Amino acid sequence: MIPRRLFSARSRAALEGMGRWTPWAPAVPGPGRLLPLHAAPRLLSVGCARRAKHQEPPGKKLLSEKKLKRHFVDHRRVLVRGGRGGDGASCFHSEPRKEFGGPDGGDGGDGGHVVLKVDQQVKSLSSVLSWYQGCDGEDGGRKNCFGRKGALLYVRVPVGTLVKEGSEVLADLSHPGDEYIAALGGAGGKGNRFFLANDNRAPVTCTPGQPGQERVLLLELKTVAHAGMVGFPNAGKSSLLRAISNARPAVASYPFTTLKPHVGVVHYEDHQQVAVADIPGIVRGAHRNRGLGLAFLRHIERCPFLLFVVDLSAPEPWVQLDDLKAELEKYEQGLAQRPHAVVANKVDLPPARARLPELRARLGQEPIALSAATGENLEELLQRLKELHDHHVAAELECGRRPLRW
Ligand SMILES: Nc1nc2c(ncn2[C@@H]2O[C@H](COP(=O)(O)OP(=O)(O)OP(=O)(O)O)[C@@H](O)[C@H]2O)c(=O)[nH]1
Ligand SMILES: [Mg+2]
Question: Which UniProt keywords apply (predicted)?
Fold first, then answer.
């Protein structure tokens, strides 16, 4: 019996009803009776199974691109101040029958440093505050006790953070685990024990702790990936990234859907991983601040190779490519000359395929004609990506540098 006070009348009825529940047993046909095939019990409706297959896994609701942009910060001005050193103590040892035991003031502890540390879980500089104060060291004590040092204060930053002071680049934190001491803690003061000398047996001098270093730093995030995707708005860059990796940038039929860089990782059977960055679209005249300008091109500056994505359903796709290259050159000399592949997207649309021979002739190289929407010919792109990645790794090893690993 269910206690009356705990449940409302309605839920009691439901629970008591549960008491009469009997396990489901399939109807067993009697001897000589066969169940018709179409009457076999169906555990899950086909429609349900089909839907379940295409559903996103349950979890947190994805943020819209606009909201994501709000959380994405790629530069920050930050004031860092190291911890202050503890003061030295001035005191004298004294105990029964040893009245003048000499100076026994200990030194103060050093102030703690402020350290920038790369954390792969951090994706933008939005979590970095505008100022940081390191931990102070403890003052020295009696009986020659030294003060405790201030603890290190770690500031977590994303991979690819550039640390600048004015226009001078101080550090490039491009590998997970990289650290940079942004502000040194001040040295601890000396206690009067330190000043004990043959000609001065009872010094009273002690020094105060030093203030920590203070700096104004500029943090700049340059996304780190192997391949950077560049293309006009609506060329299908985000659709392509969704098709080849598990990144989920927003896709829509209006220009400038993507407002912040997304990085997707392509996994190969031999456990190689190639990171591909999708950035907002570029338009002709972006160097004159048209569209979203060229500022976000900093996110592909670090990419050793590029993917130019053109929309094959547009009237003259080869013009898109020339414009893209011109804009890249205006941003940084030689950027368009990096190893690259040309991807001709939307080959599934009727007029697109007819433009392919002309594009091929004008380019002087074979474009990868594919469709991000239908998945047609994606293997060729994956193959080409792998080739570009292998060349990059070989070149880096030859120069004695560590190739970028994702
Ligand atoms: N038919 C067809 N449509 C495509 C294909 N790839 C992308 N699209 C459509 O093109 C439109 C733009 O796609 P996006 O992936 O958002 O393009 P984008 O280059 O990322 O655009 P921005 O983020 O604005 O720079 C969407 O409506 C897509 O559905 C394709 O291969 N075939
Ligand atoms: Mg996009």
Answer: GTP-binding, Membrane, Mitochondrion, Mitochondrion inner membrane, Nucleotide-binding, Ribosome biogenesis
Report the 10 Å Cβ neighbour count for 141.
18
- Tell me the whole-structure pTM to 2 decimals: 0.71
Does the predicted interface ipTM exceed a cut of 0.95? Answer: yes
241 lines ligand 1 (CB under 6 A): no
Please state the CATH superfamily assignment of the domain spanning residues 73-221 in this structure. Answer: GTP1/OBG domain (2.70.210.12)
Q: Residue written as tokens 């226009």?
A: 167
Q: What is the 3-state secondary structure (H, E, C) of 106-150?
A: CCCCCCCCEEEEECCCCCCHHHCCCEEECCCCCCCCCCCCCCCCC
DSSP β-bridge partners for residue 228? 277, 306
Each residue's pLDDT, cut to its tens digit, for the chain (406 residues) gives 444 444 444 444 444 444 444 444 444 444 434 334 344 333 333 333 344 444 555 666 666 666 666 667 888 999 999 999 999 999 999 888 888 889 999 999 999 999 999 998 888 898 899 999 999 999 999 999 999 999 999 999 998 899 999 889 999 998 888 999 999 999 999 999 999 999 998 999 999 999 999 999 999 998 888 999 999 999 999 999 999 988 888 888 888 888 888 888 899 888 888 999 998 898 888 877 777 777 788 888 888 999 999 999 888 889 999 999 999 998 888 888 999 999 999 999 888 888 888 888 888 888 999 999 999 989 999 999 999 999 999 998 998 887 777 6
Q: Which residues have a beta carbon within 5 Å of ligand 2, which is an ion? A: 238, 257-258
Please determine, looking at this structure, whether the domain spanning 227-398 carries the CATH number 3.20.20.10.
no
* Beta bridge partner(s), residue 306: 228, 340
Q: Which atom of ligand 1 is nearest to the CA of 253?
A: 27
In angstroms, what is the span from residue 122 Cα to ligand 1's centroid? 28
